[in-house]
Amino acid sequence: MNPLIPVRHLIKTLGYYTDRRARDGADRETAARLEWAGEGLPPGLEVSWLGTAGFALSYEGFDLLIDPYVTRMPLREMLSRQVVRPSDAALDAWIHHADAVLVGHTHFDHALDVPEIARRTGATVYGSASMHHLMGLHGLIDRSVDAEPYRVYEEGPFRFSLIPSLHSKITLGMKVPMGGELTCEHLDGLFPRAYRCGQTWAFHIEVAGITLYHQGSAEMIDEAVRHRDVDVFLCGIAGRQFSDRYVRRALTALSPKWVVPTHYDDFFRPLEAPQGFAPDVDLTGFVQEVARVSGEFQVRTPRLGG
């Protein structure tokens, strides 16, 4: 690796904080101007953003969740070595039903709430070996599927497969934070940094005559993608600056009709609070990057809870 690359990333990140107020203002304007009103979705299919990379898909009385994280622990708790538990109040407010849950990787902002959601709802959880291990720690191994790549699973009206993927190296472009497998052996050891990434998945979903593709982290294995011409691309954008030409590669591989950016919000802020933006994600810049690839892609921004 070029030793100057981490230095460049550090300089760019520090520069973000010098004009954060202006950039957040621009991102708020972009989010409002491009707010998604369900374009590209067939009648009866509802897609709700749960913040971070989380979504709830509802169709014909069946609910499929993706990376549901609603607890939103404060930053000070994330930096501690204390066990952080799912928030009953947040789950009561935001998660009312689930039949199946897809988990892209096992960082806390994707996986922390999943075992409790499965316990409450009886949902089946699909994910990596690390997710399977986490479910076992909670005594829920019977609700967990250690998924096989590309195998088509069916839950109600949904057909989906898990696509091998990667997590962006957001530690100055050098490594994945909290990389490796989740190996904690006791619940009392599940402090935030114990939620190791594990295998990373993307999801291809078919329902109601359309296809959706969910990429929860801004990196991918180009040759692993087997689906083109998807209808809706739920595109994680946090950390994309550390992945070479990520936006161009993803759009070229998937050729989506609608592009819905996600994982750009401040996930240390409660969902009921006014939306904030994650540091240096640059939602406005993402929209411009998409336009530079092709003006044919339609970008829409999700509304929290909507």
Automatic annotation (TrEMBL):
SUPFAM superfamilies registered for this protein in UniProt: Metallo-hydrolase/oxidoreductase
Organism of provenance: Actinocorallia aurantiaca
Residue span(s) of domain Metallo-beta-lactamase: 51-263
Tree of life domain: Bacteria
Name the record gives this protein: MBL fold metallo-hydrolase
Matching InterPro entries: Metallo-B-lactamas, RibonucZ/Hydroxyglut_hydro, UPF0173_UPF0282_UlaG_hydrolase
